[in-house]
Automatic annotation (TrEMBL):
UniProt organism field: Lentzea tibetensis
Protein name according to UniProt: Helix-turn-helix transcriptional regulator
Top-level taxon of the source organism: Bacteria
GO molecular function, one term: DNA binding
Transcription in keyword set: yes
Lineage: Bacteria, Bacillati, Actinomycetota, Actinomycetes, Pseudonocardiales
All residue ranges annotated as the HTH hxlR-type domain in the record: 45-143
Amino acid sequence: MISSCCSFRSHPAVSAAYWKVGTFRVYRYLVDTTLSKVDCYLRTCPSRTVLEAIANKWAALLVDTLRHGTLRFGELRRRLDGITQKSLTQGLRTLERDGMVVRTVYPTVPPRVEYSLSPLGHSVADLMSGIRSWSEEHLLEILDARDAYDNRPEPAPVS
């Protein structure tokens, strides 16, 4: 039985078998598929996994970097200073699994692999770019607020 009460379930790209009533395995926990609406504030909502994927620091920077064009693994690693090979690999795999990144392997020796944004990835790229721009624009204000917080006197206990 398939519930049609969720707007995302009626999307033609979503297969009917995917939304059978019951539970399915989602990264880290089981999600009940009998939800009546999409709401990130609900613990069992599958949209939380999407939010988790794009809210990751490296995912945000990867998407923003790839919006400028196709890059190879080494180029991404050089551009994202401080990212480990493991974090880059995991981030790319997660974004590829979620349909935001396209991985293209060319049959050469050694194999050449390129990464680019899919149409879905491009749809979130402006949001990621905006977050990056906002953080750069407000950096001094944030640093001043942190200093003020760290240097404030201890509050008196309430009696």
